[in-house]
Amino acid sequence: MGRGPSIEARKNAEDARRGKIFTKIIREISVAARAGGGDPAGNPRLRSAIDKGLSANMSKDVIERAIKKATGELEGVEYEEVRYEGYAPGGVAVIVDCLTDNRVRTVADVRHAFGKFGGNMGTEGSVAFMFRKLGVLSFAQGVDEDALTGAAIEAGADDVVVHDNGAIDVLTAPEAFGEVKAAMEAAGFRADIAEVAMRADNDVVVEGETAEQVAKLLRWLEDMDDVQAVHSNADLGDAAYA
User: Fold this and answer.
1) What is the pLDDT of residue 1?
2) What is the enclosing helix (H) or strand (E) of 195?
3) Which end of the chain is more exposed for a tag (fewer CB within 10 A), N or C?
4) Which residue segments constitute the domains of the chain, with CATH numbers given?
5) pLDDT value at residue 56
6) Cβ contact 163:188 at 8 Å
7) How far is CA 143 from the centre of its chain?
8) Cα–Cα distance between 93 and 122 in angstroms, integer?
9) Are 93 and 232 in contact (CB under 8 A)?
């Protein structure tokens, strides 16, 4: 009978995963604080980034240090926001949002990822027109649909989408995201995932080996340190969880 990974190996893998998550959140906090100031009460983007950090068990000291670096109280690295667009196998549109201190390195890494898995980098605007920017509050299956829908309407959400597996997404305008999220939480509904994201107007169904290649590309991109978010219009079916 084969042996699985040791406890130490699993712990090291988990630490590495947590480290990547922290890196991404710290960059988001830094850019948000630099752009809109270090007071989360008047900076919704910073408030959202701080919430992500706290949800990931990031300490308040780490969060405060990132804010101070961004606002000039401590010496820190300056990041810029860049977006890359392209196509994965099967005609799947992909948007890659990055925060980087070295644009040359980042574009090379993203281009390599597309090529490695049979995709192609596109020009600016080549796929973005297929997406809309939305606030998304995602709830796992098992939540009371009627109660959640009522709370979402009361909170001012634009739409409620019930998926075949029972999961529910509450959609908002980006500028209303923070207010709707707070109202939903006050009503007793805390989302499993809460973010402002790019949502495709129409999904592209891909299957078999093509779906596996697309899933590998998306996971590879998501795992890159410089990448903050990956958006696609792929409907991968079971390949999304492989």
Assistant:
1) 38
2) strand 193-200
3) N
4) 7-70 (1.10.10.200), 79-242 (3.30.70.980)
5) 86
6) no
7) 22
8) 10
9) yes
Of the candidates 132, 200, 136, 196, the residue with the CA atom closest to the CA atom of residue 168 = 136
Taking CA atoms, 77 is separated from 14, 17, 27, 29, 151, in Å, by: 26, 22, 9, 12, 41
Q: What CA–CA distance (Å, rounded) separates 98 from 5? A: 32
Query: What confidence tens digit (pLDDT) does each residue in 96-110 have?
Result: 999 999 999 999 999
Yes or no: say if 228 and 96 are a contact pair by the CB < 8 Å rule. no
Paired sense of beta strands 234-235 and 227-232, if any: unpaired
pTM above 0.70, yes or no: yes
Amino acid at 208: G
pLDDT tens, residue by residue, 20-79: 888 888 888 988 888 888 898 888 888 888 988 888 889 999 899 889 888 877 777 788
Cα→Cα distances 198→11, 52, 227, 230, Å: 33, 18, 15, 9
CA 27/CA 115 separation, integer angstroms: 26
- In this structure, are strands 131-139 and 92-100 parallel, antiparallel, or unpaired? unpaired
- Residue 239 has what pLDDT? 60
